[in-house]
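ok here's Transposase DDE domain-containing protein, seq below lol
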Amino acid sequence: MKIEEGQTSKRQRKKVEMLFAHLNRILKLDRLRLRGPNGARDEFHLAATAQNLRKMVKLIPMLGLKPA
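and the structure came out like this:
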């Protein structure tokens, strides 16, 4: 593998690892509560959806909201 390819791979891997660390630490996905492969998959999808919704909220500007 070339040096540039290795650096790109390292950056991409770090992004993914940081997302998993966030799922584990913040969203308490360290232990799956649903049983079986389907339950684990569903629980992971729910956690990933929650993480994506949190990201989207930060991207959407708070327009039109005035303090009462």
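fwiw The mean pLDDT is 79. kinda neat tbh
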